[in-house]
Amino acid sequence: MAKKDNVRAGQVVGDVDAFVSAPVHSPVSGTVKDIALRSHPVLGRTMAVIIDTDPADATEKSPCAGQFGADFDHSAYSVEQICEAVRQAGIVGMGGAGFPTRVKIEPNPRLPKRTLIINGCECEPFITCDYRIMLEWTYQIIAGVKLACKASGCSRVVIGIEDNKPAAIETMCKALEACRGCEHIEVAPVQTKYPQGGERQLINSLLKRTVPTGGIPPMIGICVLNVATCAAIAEAVVTGAPLTHRVVTVTGEAISKPGNYYVPVGMQVADLIDHAGGLTETAAKVILGGPMMGLAIADLSTPITKTSGAVTVLTKEAIYKAKYEKRQTPCIRCGRCLDVCPENLNPTKIAHAVKNNLLDVAADYYMSACIECGCCSYVCPANIELTGYIKTGKLLVARAKQKVPE
Amino acid sequence: MLSKITVSPGPHISEPHSTRSIMGDVIIALVPAMFAAIIYFRIRAFVLIGVCVGTCVASEWLCNLIRKKPNSLDDLSAVVTGIILAFSVPPALPWWAAVIGSAFAVIIGKMVFGGLGANIFNPAMVGRAFLTASFGMLMTTWTVPVTLDTTMPEIAATGRGAITQATPLAWSKQAIKKKVDTKVVAAQLDASLIGQIGGCLGETSSIALLIGALYLVLKRTINVNIPLAVLGSAFVVAAMCHLINPNAYIPPWLHLTTGGMLIGAFFIATDPVTMPLSTRGMWLFGTGVGALIMLIRIVGEYPEGVMYAILIMNAVTPLIDRFCKLTPAGGVPNA
User: Fold this and answer.
1) Nearest to A329 among B10, B75, B275 (CB)
2) Residue A374 Cα, gap to closest chain B Cα (Å)
3) Looking at beta carbons, which residues of chain A come within 8 Å of B335?
4) Contacts of residue A1, Cβ cutoff 8 Å, sequence gap at least 6
5) Which residue stretches of A265-381 are H helix?
6) Architecture label for domain A65-239
7) In this structure, are strands A245-251 and A310-315 parallel, antiparallel, or unpaired?
8) Is the CB of residue B218 less than 8 Å from the CB of residue B29?
9) Domain A245-315 classified CATH 3.40.50.1010?
10) Number of helices followed by number of strands (H, E) in chain B
């Protein structure tokens, strides 16, 4: 790409050859205005292609759920076709981690997959985007599930949905009954308990199996996909459309019109907030993601990415109550962080090791096994940013490793 | 649009409790026992609780002032230390001894280690141990509750009149030495439930302590593993002894309701700072406390035992923490 190039909607604007990667497509038609550094929710700042939309070609893309019904037949597509379509469409895990989906579903002789888990648990409180698409795009999701199941070679599919979403469970069950060839797909309600949507936690809840520390689900023959990812797979394989749009929950007390919006990837958070009626007077913190793991952004021109499930805007009172009303006091060793840790770690030990720059001690207490869910910080009576320290520690370890030559 | 935007690491919401609210809960839970103490010991209870709390608060304030540290009184931990220390001294203790004990508890027991969270031993127990070592006589003179009928044969049998009496555990010691029958002690079970017995200020009324304990357990302020382990292990040891020789060893339930057993199990051993972090560690710690209490009560010369048992286990806590290192949910990764 270069400046002043014309871009059409769906055209690839960025790609690399690396195996674990996915191309990025333009969601709109227009001209390239600039290629420059822009803020990014995870990377801080990164190179971005800035596109001016063409007013003459302002056709809005709309969801394609209408094309899918109970009669969808996945046998028309071969495993290679599915994998290639998923790769070409640039699909990544839309639950938040953003791991390229093709790498996940592709058959791997060394790590054969037997069970496919579909994550219908909302990753965090406040977020409802997965719930909405389960209600509205039911058949599209099921089509995606069938395709992913075929591509990955799994023989069993379990759709885990939290029990506070009875409507989604019912809709899914009814749709599965209506479909042919869905005997191997089951819907399993799971307890509503954050972080249920974490893949390690969901696997444990559904199958009573544990992913080894530092390991990944394929090691125990499991592949986990988010419902939104399944919908994207169905769209990519059947219509050939790349992943350029996603559903984003815009929520929080400081948003005038909270709701779920179908938005182009690359849209600026500021524009999305304007679209959702703008901020109220009391808005104080804008978070890309949910209130537990979301990243607070300083720059509202940060774009929505393929992994952004939500924009949460908190009021001044809410963040004051959560963080600033009570100052940080010494750890009283009450052990509440140990009680809530879903990975059974010792957050206070790790965090204090990081604080005192004892990274080897932190590693000794399995710092790398932390999933950064934030439960320890949430529950800490001394108001210590345990998750923050642990994240910092991981970053320091990663940096130290880079410096050491191999 | 936004003029100011806040950025911080997640999570961006939190549970609305704090160290202060936890300590506040403990204080609320101690109120029933405080009422019992005031009913049984009247003005003495008032003076002792007031003096202990006042001295603890003043000591902490002074330490912060000297060390040029920010004021830490708002976490209320000094108040808790003061109340618990007052509860664990005899009602007849002179006020100046209470001042010395409280100051020692906070200054040596807590502040020299670096304040709340850094102390190895429970500060109130440090203060009490200091008082026991320094003023042995004062710390073992038990006043009779003012509401008690002093013509009761058990009290008359002491021969010391209405001013002082032996505690049920002192009686049990006599029973072990075959000087009195265990029935004399067992007769005091009903009295120990409501608190009509001799003993430390706040430890006499089991019912008042249990009401407070129930509040703490229901509010999930304390971890129930520790009291269960303490009482469970003490009960098992006491029951075994009683079964072997019921004439020498008092029934196990009497061991649970007398002395500092309940206040120790629910309010002192559960001090978060000085207990192990992991659930396994808590059971080890609690079992150790219960077993040591019984060891001291049955074998030792001393009739009580809660204080030393807790102090000893406090010292072992870092070892327990090291021994009970948690295994991650996904197992230990192979290096």
Assistant:
1) B75
2) 5
3) none
4) A7, A13, A14, A32, A35, A49
5) 269-275, 316-319, 336-340, 347-355, 359-364, 375-379
6) 3-Layer(aba) Sandwich (3.40)
7) parallel
8) no
9) no
10) 15, 0
pLDDT tier, B4 (very low <50, low <70, confident <90, very high otherwise): confident
Taking residues B241-251, report their average pLDDT. 87
Residue B278 near residue B321 (C-beta atoms within 8 A): yes
User: Which tens digit of pLDDT belongs to each residue from B38-83?
Assistant: 988 888 899 999 999 999 999 999 999 999 988 889 899 999 999 9
CB contact under 8 A, A333 and B20: no
Q: Strand, coil or helix: what is A261?
A: strand
φ, ψ of residue B201 in degrees (nearest 5): -50, -50
Question: Do the Cβ atoms of A302 and A41 come closer than 8 Å?
Answer: yes
Q: Is A394 on the interface with B (CB under 8 A)?
A: no
Quick one: pLDDT at residue B162?
41
Paired residues of A312 in beta bridges: A251, A287
Q: Which of A54, A46, A12 is nearest to A30 (CA)?
A: A54
Query: Of the given ranges (A318-327, B40-49, B172-181), which has the lowest mean pLDDT?
Result: B172-181
Name residues 214-253 of chain A within 8 A of B (Cβ): 214-215
For residue A325, the 8-state DSSP code is: S
pLDDT value, residue B186: 67
Under 8 Å between Cβ of A396 and A354:
yes
**How many Cβ atoms from other residues are within 10 Å of residue A405's Cβ?**
4
Within chain A, how many helices (H) and strands (E) appear?
14, 14
Whole-number Å distance between alpha carbons of A67 and A83: 21
For CA atoms A174, A179, A183, A185, the dihedral sign is: negative
CATH 3.10.20.600: which residues of chain A? 245-315
Distance of CA B70 to the CA centre of its chain: 29
Provide the CB-side half-sphere exposure for B196 (13 A, CA).
13
pLDDT at B256 over 70: yes
Instruction: Using an 8 Å CB-CB cutoff, list chain B residues near A382.
Output: 18-19, 117
CB B245 within 8 A of CB B8: no
Least CB–CB distance from A323: residue in B14, B282, B328: B14
Q: How far is CA A333 from CA A120, A352, A384, B119, in A?
A: 36, 11, 12, 11
C-alpha–C-alpha distance, residues B67 and A14, integer Å: 59
Q: Supply φ then ψ for residue A187, to 5 degrees.
A: -105, 130
DSSP H helices in A208-335? 227-239, 269-275, 316-319
Summarize pLDDT for B190-202 with one digit per residue, the tens.
666 666 677 788 8
**Chains A and B: how many Cβ contacts under 8 Å?**
180
Q: What is the residue-averaged pLDDT of chain B? A: 87
Residues of chain A contacting residue B6, judged by C-beta atoms under 8 Å apart:
284-285, 296, 319
Tokens 């096994």, located at residue: A369
Residue B8: predicted pLDDT: 85
Judged by DSSP in three states, B312 sits in: helix
**Which helix (H) or strand (E) covers residue B38, if one does?**
helix B19-41
Dihedral (Cα; B105, B110, B116, B117), 10-degree rounding: -120
pLDDT attached to residue A72 = 86
Burial readout A159-185 (b: 16 or more C-beta within 10 A, e: otherwise)? bbbbeebeebbebbeebbeebeebeeb
DSSP structure class, residue A75: G
Name which of A317, A319, A333, A372 to mutate to probe chain B: the one with the most chain B Cβ atoms within 10 A of its Cβ: A333
How many Å lie between the alpha carbon of A288 and the closest alpha carbon of chain B? 11
Q: Are A51 and A35 in contact (CB under 8 A)?
A: no
